[in-house]
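Board work, copied verbatim: Glycerol kinase
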Amino acid sequence: MSDTRREFIAAIDQGTTSSRCIVFDRDGRIVSVGQKEHEQIFPEPGWVEHDAAEIWANVQEVVAEALERAGITREDVRALGITNQRETTLLWDRATGEPVHNAIVWQDTRTDALCRELGRNVGQDRFRRETGLPLASYFAGPKIRWLLENVEGLRERAEAGEILFGTMDSWVIWNLTGGPDGGVHVTDVTNASRTLLMNLRTLDWDPRICESLGVPMAVLPEIRSSAEVYGEARGALAGVPVASALGDQQAALFGQTCFSPGEAKSTYGTGTFLLLNTGSEAVNSYNGLLTTVGYRIGDQDPVYALEGSIAVTGSLVQWMRDQMGLINSAAEIETLASSVEDNGGAYFVPAFSGLFAPYWRSDARGVIAGLTRYVTKAHIARAVLEATAWQTREIVDAMEKDSRVELTALKVDGGMTSNNLLMQCISDVLDAPVVRPMVAETTCLGAAYAAGLAVGFWPDTDALRANWRRAAEWTPRMEADVREREYKNWLKAVERTMGWLEEEN
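↓ predict structure ↓
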C-alpha cells in the first residue's frame, strides 16, 4: 500500500490572464504552485480573444512546474481538478484538435447586437425562465453563433459533426485525456449553466433554445457533475484521474465550503462576485441577479446559487491612486480612511460604466454626493471603501428578497480582503460576520476538493468543512439606527447617478 502521507491532489486553474497548477495536501494546504501568463488579443475595440493552443501549451508547462517544485511525481497525485474562466468560448476540429478560431473571451462584446436581435419583442428575459440568465454578450451561446456565422464553412462542418465546442474546462479536459486520440468531450453543470443553452431544471441542453440560437447540438459536450472521474490523463500526469470541473466563481464557493443554504462567498478583486447557496432549488431572480448551478457532486442533487456582480470595487481604489493621485499605493487607502471617524457626510457611487446588479442601468454615471467644506481627502477615501460595502449590502438584500434565505455569514477572498477597515465596514453594513480563510486560493482549492471527493481522498463535505480554517473574522459594531440612516443616504446617492446619459447618446 502507498504511504498515505505522500498523496496529493492537483488543480489546474485556467484563468483569464494566466494558467496555474497548485498541488494541495490532505489538509488543503498549498504545497507548490506553477503559473504562466498568456497573451490578451484585442483585434477590435470591445473584442477580446485568447490563443487556445498557447493556453494548452502553458497548462502542460505549469503542471510540470508544480510537480517539480513539490518534489513529487504523477504517482503521488491521486486526482486532478479543473477550474476555469467562465463563458470563454472555443470551437475546434475533432480530428486534428486545431482551434478553428481564437477563443472568444467572456469580456468580449461583439455579440451585443446579436443579443438585441435575439431578444426580439421579448427582450433580455427571453430565455431567463429556462436558463436563469438574461440575454447578454457575456454568455457562451451567442459567441458560438457568431463563430458559426463568421468563420468560412464552419456551420456545415459543425452540422456534419466535425467540430467540437467547449468552454475552457472542456478544452483542457479533452486535451488532457488524449485530444484527437480518444479525448473525453465533457463539461460540468456549472460551466454549462453559463452558456444560455442549458435548462436549469433538467440539467441538459435545451433543444428549443439551441435551435433559437442557431447552435447545432452535435458540437456540444456531454454535461456531467462537477465531481466525478471523467477520464484518465495522458502525458506528464499519465494515469491520474481527471475528476472535477467547476467555473471559477463556483469553485470559490466550493473552496469556501459554502455547502448549506444561506452560506455565501464574495470574491473582492477588480470587480466583485457574490454567490449565495440556495440549496436544491433554482431560485428565479426578480431583482437583477443570475440563477446558476453552484455545484453537483456525483449523482447527488444539484445545489443552486444566486450570483450578483459589482463592476467597480478594487478598480475604484486603483482609480484613486492612478487618476486622482490621492494615494500612492492601494494599501495607503486604509491608513488614510482610518484617520477619520466617518465619511464626513460624503458618498461615492462608482457607476463608471453604469450600475450593475441589482439595477442594470447603463445610463448611470459615477457621483460623489454630500460634499461640504468639511470633507477632506480622508473622508473621500473612507467613502471609497464604504462604496464596496454598500454595493455588497444591495446585492445581499436582493438575494434575500429572491431566495427568502437569510445570509448567515459572508466568507470572503480576493485581493481586497487584506484591507481590515473594509472588512469591518462590510460586516457593519450587512449586520453579519465576515470571515476570511487561511488559504486565500479558494478557486483552486474548490477544484481540488471536488476532485478529491470524487476519488475518495476526502470522505465527504464534512471532512472539507473540518479543513476550512479561519484566518480572521469581523463582527458588526455599528448601531442599527446608524446603519439604517447611512444606507438611506447611500440609496439617495445612487438615485443621483441615474439618467445621466440621455437616450439619444
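The two ends are 70 Å apart (CA to CA).
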